[in-house]
């Protein structure tokens, strides 16, 4: 076991991953999303895609302790359940694609997904039609597929919620519950598919403490009156992560 811990401590870029997950925790605490969008592009420079997904999904489970109790009281649990169930069905497809594509292709997919998500929310794109339950199932399914392939479980759902002009508090609560559910689904899927090794689990354990601490800090900073400030801050950090994680800079 000590050998696994030593191997995790010697992982190239570990200090950058610690700093990145700490920044992501603050953003996650006050917005309810953003961790994977910040962490995955940076971690992809140092770890294989499957390990990045395992680390971010496992680490995300720890934040559940801090965020879910408060979100549970506010969220539309029926809607989140529909999104999560459809994601559960499609995560295996994403994990299968993960095993078929090379690491560089997946990193470019991550860059495109995060960039398009950021562009949509920054420009204030809005959905003006009506989206029934079939549409919600489709969104959850798309989130599951992309999450299984890249670890980015949130972008599709985030765009859906922000595009519907809901309050920051409602978006935050629903997103927290959905991301908590998909973290568990993806981690379970990786175990079942045999793509889990001990070293990335040890890395997730090392990252969990700074992530939990900064998530609590971000949660304590949350104030619905400062919605604009939160969004601008989150977008800036996400943009920085996308630029720094571009495969062009390897």
Automatic annotation (TrEMBL):
Originating organism: Parasedimentitalea denitrificans
Q: Which InterPro entries match?
A: TM_pro_TauE-like, TSUP
Q: Report the principal subcellular site.
A: membrane
Highest taxon, organism lineage: Bacteria
Recorded hits in Pfam families, A to Z, give: TauE (PF01925)
Location in the cell: Cell membrane
Q: Which UniProt keywords apply?
A: Cell membrane, Membrane, Transmembrane, Transmembrane helix, Transport
Residues annotated as transmembrane: 14-40, 52-74, 80-98, 105-125, 137-163, 175-192, 198-217, 229-249
The residues forming a coiled coil are none
Similarity annotation: Belongs to the 4-toluene sulfonate uptake permease (TSUP) (TC 2.A.102) family.
Q: Tell me how this protein sits in the membrane.
A: Multi-pass membrane protein
What PANTHER family does the annotation carry?
MEMBRANE TRANSPORTER PROTEIN, TRANSMEMBRANE PROTEIN YFCA
Q: Protein name, please?
A: Probable membrane transporter protein
